[in-house]
Specification:
216 residues; alpha+beta; 2 domains; 1 helix
């Protein structure tokens, strides 16, 4: 009787092992198919990120050559407020000193502009420095810059610039922004802030000056 029980137990064990083997085989097959599916998805994703050159016009398509350009939002002058930071705070409100670069970029492709004044103010709104002794002429697509050194902390966390510019004809608005950067002990921080127009500034037509060229 005991021998029969043992035989039945062995047969039951064998059946369980067969079921387990079938389950493992099905699981492995499913896992292989899933792996192939994921691999194809990754290949497709990588293909979507790869560089694709622009598509040329087909032979039957024609490009338009009857277009002409108008100045977008033309203006003759502005006063622009540019937020800046001679330091920011980190850890236990410790100041982190930054170098400030004020960049004024003439976006006009054919007309110069004149940067009349660049004035620097501190957190309390007091003028710290005026950076231009004379107005500066920026040629078409030209750029001029003003740098506030890292050690110059007079501006504070609420520093700002007022930039006044004008042109003799309506032009596209220049891009005026402050770029802050700092590095300490192998760590660095950098960010930029774009200026905001606070008023229009149109030059008097009777006033003409000989203006110096901007340094690159």
């Amino acid at each position: 009787m005991a021998k029969k029980v043992n035989v039945d137990a062995v047969e039951a064990f064998n059946r369980q092992m067969k079921r387990l083997a079938i389950f493992i085989a099905v699981f492995l097959v499913a896992l292989i198919f899933y792996g192939l599916y994921i691999d194809r998805r990754l290949d497709g994703f990588e293909d979507s990120l790869s560089h694709h050159p622009p598509t040329n016009l087909e032979a039957e398509e024609t490009a338009r050559f009857d277009l002409y350009h108008l100045t977008a939002n033309p203006v003759e002058g502005q006063v622009v407020y540019v937020p800046a930071y001679s330091h920011v705070y980190h850890r236990a409100n410790d100041p982190y000193l930054l170098t400030i670069t004020l960049s004024v970029r003439n976006t006009s492709t054919d007309s110069p502009i004149v940067v009349k004044t660049v004035r620097y103010f501190d957190t309390k709104g007091r003028e710290v420095k005026s950076y231009l002794d004379k107005p500066v002429r920026l040629p078409a697509l030209g750029t001029t810059e003003v740098i506030v050194e890292r050690e110059d902390s007079l501006g504070g966390s609420g520093a700002n610039f007022l930039v006044e510019w004008y042109a003799n004809t309506p032009v596209t608005e220049p891009i005026i922004e402050a770029i802050m950067i700092g590095t300490t002990s192998g760590q660095g921080i950098s960010f930029a802030r774009r200026g905001s127009v606070i008023s229009e500034a149109v030059p008097h037509p009777a006033v003409e000056e000989e203006l110096p060229a901007a340094k690159p």
